[in-house]
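Onboarding guide, step 5: your first structure request.
Type a short instruction followed by the sequence, for example:

Predict the 3D structure of this protein.
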Amino acid sequence: MKLDSIHKNVHKPETLYHKDIGFPSNITLPKTFNNVTRVRYSQHAKDEANNDRYGSITLPDIIDFRKGETIEIGVRGREVSKIVIRYPYDKEKDIVMVVNPSDGFVRTVWFNMKNDTHGTLDKSKYARP
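The system replies with structure tokens like these:
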């Protein structure tokens, strides 16, 4: 990908979509996306993993997007720029990760209790497909 096309895409506004409202059908994943991805973590994600209110999070080196539930996506233009994915972690908790699908960079992480289904979703934050 040319540097100028990366630069143009970064400055486009990011539109958010949520699984409970629906994802658009006319979007694409970055060409560099892989279902199984070696991830790297921002310092913020590492700090959050060490200080989560439910305990310390052991961060995986590799994630398989097919084994998690996509909760939210960000889209710039027609390309997915962010994936919020939720994975089973242990009996009580799931791990939620905010990942750049183009390069496996994890922006942040947190635990959610398995019984936390976010029944108070603010639908005004999300676009409709």
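Each response can be followed by summary notes, for example: Residues 3-119 form one domain.
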